[in-house]
Amino acid sequence: GGRALKCRGARGPVGVALQVQSRARSPNDRSWVDVWGASAVVGRSRGLSLGAAYNEVRDGVPDPTPNQSQLGDKAAIFGLRYRADRFYAATTVSISEQHEVDDLGRRFDGTGFELALRYHATGSLWLEAGYNDLRPGSDHPGDFRVRFGVGYLVYSFGAGSRVFLGLKLDDGRSSDGNKRSGSAFATGLNYAF
Asked: Which residues are 49's β-sheet partners?
């Protein structure tokens, strides 16, 4: 377990947050502020918003167990969002150190990019699309890469009830250079009663 302190505030279009956590899970325990993170967002719920966040692990170990954090784990993310009545678009860019894990369980420094889009054609029918790209820095051995795009057609027929069709086009690679999982087609139904 651990103890956390969270502070959040907003004034007009600016929102900020800070969280510090103290825990005793590591031989590198700092006894105060083992992990900390901060974020800021400028914008309103409609229109354009810009945000940034940073997180740092200070009590990491070189070879962590599942309940420990990696030594040197840091992540920064920068985002931009636009929201209108029928349209939503958001994108993020991330820069991380020892934060992500490849298919062989190795941590790496890397960069990522994400894009999410939604268009409401009617009140009950919408299209969604997304793109994700994550790749290690040039010093990471192998050819590991996450890269895929998704698209969905969604029809809502009640509060929480919907049917959808989806497609995932995957161009990711495992560390040995082979394609990761391939593309997929999906359909689904969620019925709330």
From this structure: 43, 81
Q: 46 by DSSP, 3-state: which?
A: coil
Q: Any residues with CB less than 8 A from the CB of 11 and at least 6 apart, and which? A: none
The owner of tokens 């990696």 is 70
How far is Cα 173 from Cα 190, in angstroms, rounded to an integer?
Answer: 32
Distance CA 167, CA 186 (A): 6
Contact 59, 40 (CB under 8 A): no
Q: Which amino acid is at 13?
A: P
Q: Which residue has the higher pLDDT, 61 or 187?
A: 187
The one-letter amino acid code at 128 reads E
In this structure, what token pair is assigned to residue 156?
């809502």
- Buried-exposed string 146-168: b where 16+ CB fall within 10 A, e elsewhere: bbbbbebebebeeeeebebeeeb
Q: What is the pLDDT of residues 137-152, one digit of tens each?
A: 988 888 999 999 999 9
- Distance between CA atoms of residues 180 and 146, nearest Å: 8
Q: In the numeric block, which tokens belong to residue 153?
A: 């057609």
pTM: 0.84
Query: What is the edge-to-edge ordering of all strands in the sheet holding 47-57?
Result: 2-11, 14-23, 35-43, 47-57, 74-83, 87-101, 107-120, 125-136, 146-158, 161-170, 184-190
